[in-house]
């Protein structure tokens, strides 16, 4: 049985875990850091399966970690991409109200954007058409600091930069056990290797609560996976959308709704529709992991979500099972789209932290126990804000090492 010693172990080679590893070595240059990743490469789950949007921070309440990290992270991410030759573009985006009931929420977003110091413009129908000729709405706001990039490429660049400073990344290293004693953490993997460290960082994303329990900690929440289902516009119909177009979000549900995104690849991605996944990595309806599904169904918070949000959930489920219903949702913003214009695209799964009372945790959630920093909820805009998030986690780790 091979054994390895280091100063810091990071579990998870998504964009947050890799940013954290890089930030630790920048803060403590002689620190020995090892990243454990169960997959064969980085960014195989949430990081590599999102819409690739650099978020401005307009949605997030002042004072929240989301707002702080997004406002700081969006500028840093654009600068990082430029410096590292990662494909990106500053596009701006429209948030469009298609119903009068949405206008008060749209006006609230305008005020919030101004509180954050963001460049926001109020638009009427004719001005909407100047940005997006095929989009229809009663009113909209244009947010100038939103952009797009390839977050998988960002994560791979983080990995390369971390390795340049001595970080070791072990792929195919699934964590199966964690033992602790004062000043020391030992982590065993499925291959039988054991890694010993002074500090451990749990950036396991979809498995963050499970890793916390392996360490003997009660996370006080559970990850409930929601699959985000996407379509793309047929290539000949892609000119219908020039940039990024979002609906006005429902504040009662921490998802942004079906939106239109011209990605860095030039394709127009439409989604996501959000439905419960039947496995933590359940990227399709036929992917079912019985033990994981049983854990979700046995959790009291799951039933509280169902009771509280069943109407919203029924609509999402209908759109999942019916391309016509999905297209109807798209036509609220883009009337010219037809059912046949939509092509199925790869799905993502969101690691949604849920409290026992059914509350959907809507901000970043960290927990610190002796020798360990747990990242228990890292929702969007985690990819956008991965640079300041990595520094924040590194700051906590430095406190353990001191």
Give your account of this protein's structure.
The strands form four sheets. The protein has an eight-stranded mixed beta sheet. Strands 10-3-2-14-21-20 form a six-stranded mixed beta sheet, sandwiched between helices. Strands 1-13-12-11 form a four-stranded mixed beta sheet, with no helix packed on it. The chain folds into two domains: 3-47 and 152-221 and 362-401, 3-Layer(bba) Sandwich (FAD/NAD(P)-binding domain); 89-147 and 222-354, D-Amino Acid Oxidase, Chain A, domain 2. The chain has ten helices and 21 strands. The radius of gyration is 21 Å and the shape is globular. The protein has helices spanning 15-27, 65-84, 103-115, 125-131, 151-164, 208-214, 290-298, 300-321, 323-331, 386-401; strands at residues 3-5, 8-11, 33-37, 53-54, 88-90, 93-97, 120-123, 139-143, 147-149, 168-171, 175-181, 184-189, 194-197, 199-202, 222-233, 244-247, 259-262, 268-276, 342-354, 365-369, 372-377. The protein has 402 residues and is α/β, with parallel strands linked by helices.
Secondary structure blueprint with pairings:
Layout: E1 3-5, E2 8-11, H1 15-27, E3 33-37, E4 53-54, H2 65-84, E5 88-90, E6 93-97, H3 103-115, E7 120-123, H4 125-131, E8 139-143, E9 147-149, H5 151-164, E10 168-171, E11 175-181, E12 184-189, E13 194-197, E14 199-202, H6 208-214, E15 222-233, E16 244-247, E17 259-262, E18 268-276, H7 290-298, H8 300-321, H9 323-331, E19 342-354, E20 365-369, E21 372-377, H10 386-401
Parallel strand pairs: 1-13, 2-3, 2-14, 3-10, 6-16, 14-21
Antiparallel strand pairs: 4-9, 5-9, 6-8, 7-8, 11-12, 12-13, 15-18, 15-19, 16-17, 17-18, 20-21
Helix pairs in contact: 1-5, 1-10, 2-10, 8-9
